[in-house]
Design goal:
Largest sheet: 5 strands, antiparallel
Helix content: 55-70%
Order of helices and strands: EHEHHHEHHEEEEHHEEHHHHHH
Structural class: alpha+beta
Strand content: 5-15%
Radius of gyration: 28 Å
Number of strands: 9
Length: 418
């Protein structure tokens, strides 16, 4: 049985709103290289409540009366207390807008036509209007993403209301998410209503887990994250192994020419080395993302451990996920060790590039090895080994000195404070 998943994510600043809009409307060129988004399927995305403008422009049009009321009030406000409308929104304890996300898992959407998915999305919007209480005028944009692995509906709402102000005895505009999401208990009721509405319309879905810290989390969600991490690490292992084997094979047939302090290698071997360096850089840059997913998996595992006793039947699945999590961590450590071995292996190639490469190549080497040093993949001694006798030796030694000096200075300051 698939789960009925409904989430609410606060949007706290105008800048955040713009970034979410760029994602939801696929305005960024970066999505062409995003492995989670198939840009060839973006044309299949379904606009339920269209927005032709960018989010910020559409937002200002939606709240124009609020903005006018606020700016008129500023005319009678002390100058040192005046704020722009944007600044007021960003500084407010309330939200700028709220993003509602509706989805389930791949099994639920499997075999559904685009028409059937739109019917599901329309049912979600009935929940927004009839159960949450939003009007169509408060919907900034609603769209179904069909270009990711699992279809899902993004609905951005602006909880703009008129509220009675006892101090002035008048009604004034304000933005209040709490008006629609009153409390944790009320949100639980809304989850029940959403589940009931979906099933009444023929969508057979299971209610999410009640009384947990995160009601929208389900076993299916957990599995999705695990699969994503598994696929990512499998891809990284494949790329690193492939490029290393190509490089190793190329070096067997390439005969470096040594003249004095210079080491010359043929262009084909040089290009292969560059490909390997680029792959290494990509894998290392992905390490923080892998770690973030591990932490998310661990957080979910901890939350499931605290479930009520009547949810014991889930414990078997949790243990299975915990074992999978441990396997992935072992795989991550294995990949981490593999990277360390590779980085040690390519030290001589970095050194060769500092001898025979162009100035741009040498700049890239310095940038790469200092980045690895900051990530603790290279020690000071590694950088000394690479730079020794090259034209960039002094530059790299200066970098090492600056790094160590900053550490000593911080330590001394700490002693003084004590």
């Amino acid at each position: 049985m698939s789960y009925a998943i409904f989430r609410s994510e606060s949007i706290n600043t105008i800048k955040d709103l713009g970034q979410i809009g760029a994602h939801n409307k696929r305005d960024k060129k970066a999505y062409k290289s995003n492995p989670d988004i198939d840009i060839t399927k973006t044309k299949n995305n379904i606009d339920i409540v269209p927005l032709s403008d960018k989010y910020t422009k559409g937002y200002y049009e939606l709240v124009k009366d609020y903005k006018k009321e606020y700016e008129e009030k500023q005319l009678t406000t002390r100058e040192d207390r005046r704020k722009s409308f944007d600044k007021m929104l960003d500084d407010s304890n309330s939200v700028v807008a709220d993003e509602l996300l509706f989805t389930s898992d791949n099994d639920f959407f499997k075999g559904m036509s685009k028409k059937e998915i739109k019917k599901w999305a329309d049912t979600c919007m009935e929940f927004v209007y009839n159960d949450l209480g939003y009007t169509k005028e408060q919907i900034l944009h609603a769209t179904v993403h069909m270009d990711e692995k699992t279809p899902h509906l993004h609905c951005v709402v602006v909880p703009l209301i008129k509220k009675f102000d006892k101090r002035t005895n008048t009604e004034k505009y304000t933005i209040s998410k709490k008006h629609y999401m009153k409390s944790g208990a009320y949100i639980s009721e809304l989850q029940d209503k959403y589940w009931q509405r979906m099933n009444d319309k023929g969508f057979k879905l299971e209610r999410g887990i009640k009384n947990s810290d995160n009601e929208h989390i389900s076993i299916k969600e957990f599995k999705k994250i695990t699969r994503k991490l598994d696929n990512r690490m499998e891809k990284q292992n494949y790329l690193m192994t492939r490029d290393y084997e190509i490089l190793e094979e190329k070096l067997k047939t390439s005969k470096p020419t040594i003249t004095g302090k210079e080491v010359k290698i043929d262009k084909e071997a040089y290009d292969t080395l560059q490909d390997f360096m680029n792959t290494s850089k990509m894998v290392i840059r992905d390490m923080p993302k892998n770690q973030a997913l591990f932490e998310e998996l661990q957080e979910y595992t901890n939350q499931y451990r605290e479930m009520e006793q009547d949810k014991r039947h889930l414990q078997v699945e949790i243990r299975r996920l915990e074992n999978k999590n441990e396997e992935l961590q072992k795989e991550n450590r294995k990949l981490h060790n593999f990277l360390n071995v590779m980085l040690q292996s390519i030290k001589k190639f970095f050194r060769q590039l500092l001898h025979i490469g162009t100035e741009k190549d040498k700049d890239n080497v310095v940038e790469e090895i200092t980045a690895y040093h900051q990530l603790n993949y290279y020690k000071d001694s590694d950088l000394h080994d690479i730079a020794d006798g090259t034209s960039r030796e002094e530059e790299i030694n200066d970098y090492i000195y600056e790094q160590n000096y900053e550490i000593d200075k911080d330590y001394d300051d700490y002693d003084v404070d004590i």
